Amino acid sequence: MKATILEVFNTIIENRGNKKLESISPEMHLKYDIGFDSLDLAELTVRIEADYDIDIFEDGIVNTVGEILKKLEKK
Amino acid sequence: MNILLTGASKGLGLKTTQFLLKKGLTIYAISRSKTENLNELLLQYPDNLKWLHYDLADGVNVRQSIFKDWIGFDTPIHGFVNNAALAYDDLITNLNLVSLEKMYHVNVFTPLTLTKFVLRQMLLHNIKGSIIHISSISVHTGYKGLSMYASTKGALEAFSKNTAREWGEKGIRSNCLVAGFMETEMSSTLSDNQKNRIYQRTSMKQPVDVDSVAETIGFLLSDEAKSITGQNIHVDNGTI
Ligand SMILES: NC(=O)c1ccc[n+]([C@@H]2O[C@H](COP(=O)([O-])OP(=O)(O)OC[C@H]3O[C@@H](n4cnc5c(N)ncnc54)[C@H](OP(=O)(O)O)[C@@H]3O)[C@@H](O)[C@H]2O)c1
């Protein structure tokens, strides 16, 4: 699951023309460590929803990679 | 190009659907009724015209019924024409809350929800799409009895400008086409006298040509309009 999430992250990062990530870890902050802004986070929601049919932001803000993974595991 | 268009069964929506199909676009069309004219188009364009019976008073099932089950998340959407609308006209002193709320659902709340999912689909497929809301000259020039209807269109104009600002950096555009009075079912309850008074307020002193509005929608959807966003484009015979 971590691998597909990394792939999703890199799609967004590449769309921005930035350098791809080698790896991600649960404690990484989406905004401060990965550098996503609000529009990137919107794109992230949509791409994860397409893969997992779950809207990660529907019930509140998600800050870290670990919080995303937890939401997807719950499914 | 795939275009989602509401209110395809008659009036401007039907004309626009016909015009866009002729240009080779694929149309996902929504309305409550399948009129004879719409049915003819469905037979003429079995591949490029898809139709869904949906009542826009229902904003709750938009994601499931329209995007998941019908269009499908795998289908990129390049344009959205928010055309369907209901005109509840009366003096403000007669305002009926049930009628007003119904109009806001059809004209504002469901179109905003549709925009949400159109934008999401554009993001998913990296589409620099075009959104067009059909507004009305009544937002800019007052008419007796149209204040409540005009307020729904004013909401769309504000929404469109801010959509343009919010999503411009992804290349997504949003514009309003401000139509003047056209001879459609919507304006059919007006008497000749009322119509003439409205036309006298335009530079060209006649009803707006529906084809001209449809052509302008086609232009705003196209790549030729790629630098136009956040605008209100008036097609109104010069109402001043
Ligand atoms: N006519 C004018 O003078 C004028 C002037 C300025 C702006 N406009 C705007 O131009 C646009 C087109 O108007 P028009 O003159 O072509 O009106 P129209 O002939 O009354 O057509 C309205 C369309 O909207 C659809 N619609 C209405 N309520 C709906 C609902 N609850 N769910 C789904 N579809 C619904 C209708 O389909 P069904 O009935 O089959 O559902 C029909 O296809 C509207 O946004 C209108 O406000 C019109």
Describe it.
The complex is a heterodimer of chains A (75) and B (240). Chain A has one domain: ACP-like (Non-ribosomal Peptide Synthetase Peptidyl Carrier Protein, Chain A, Orthogonal Bundle). Chain A is an all-alpha fold and 75 residues long. Chain A has three helices and no strands. Chain B is an alpha/beta fold and 240 residues long. Chain B contains seven helices and seven strands, in the order βαβαβαβαβαβααβ. The longest helix of chain B is centred in the middle third of the chain and has 28 residues, at 97-124. The chains are: A mainly alpha (75), B alpha/beta (240). Chains A and B meet through helix 2 of A and helix 4 of B. The complex binds NADP nicotinamide-adenine-dinucleotide phosphate (NAP). NADP nicotinamide-adenine-dinucleotide phosphate binds at residues 6-13, 30-33, 55-57, 83-86, 106, 134, 136, 179, 181-182, 184-187 of chain B. NADP nicotinamide-adenine-dinucleotide phosphate binds next to helix 1, strand 2 and strand 5 of chain B.
Helix-strand layout with pairing:
The complex is a heterodimer of chains A (75) and B (240).
Chain A: H1 2-15, H2 38-52, H3 65-74
Chain B: E1 2-6, H1 11-22, E2 26-31, H2 36-44, E3 49-53, H3 62-71, E4 79-82, H4 97-124, E5 130-136, H5 147-167, E6 173-179, H6 192-200, H7 210-221, E7 232-235
Parallel strand pairs in B: 1-2, 1-4, 2-3, 4-5, 5-6, 6-7
The structure holds NADP nicotinamide-adenine-dinucleotide phosphate (NAP).
* CATH architecture classification name of chain B: 3-Layer(aba) Sandwich
Uncertain segments of chain A: none
Give a short account of the largest sheet of chain B.
Answer: 7 strands, parallel
CATH superfamily of chain A, by name, is ACP-like
Total of DSSP H or I helical runs spanning 4+ residues of chain A? 3
Shape of chain B: globular
Order of helices and strands of chain B: EHEHEHEHEHEHHE
Principal-axis shape of chain A equals: globular
Biggest pleated sheet of chain A? none
Mean pLDDT of chain A: 91
Strand order of the largest sheet of chain B: 3-2-1-4-5-6-7
What's the count of strands of chain A?
0
Task: Give the rounded overall mean pLDDT of chain B.
Answer: 97
How large a portion of the residues of chain A is in β-strands, by DSSP E? Answer: under 5%
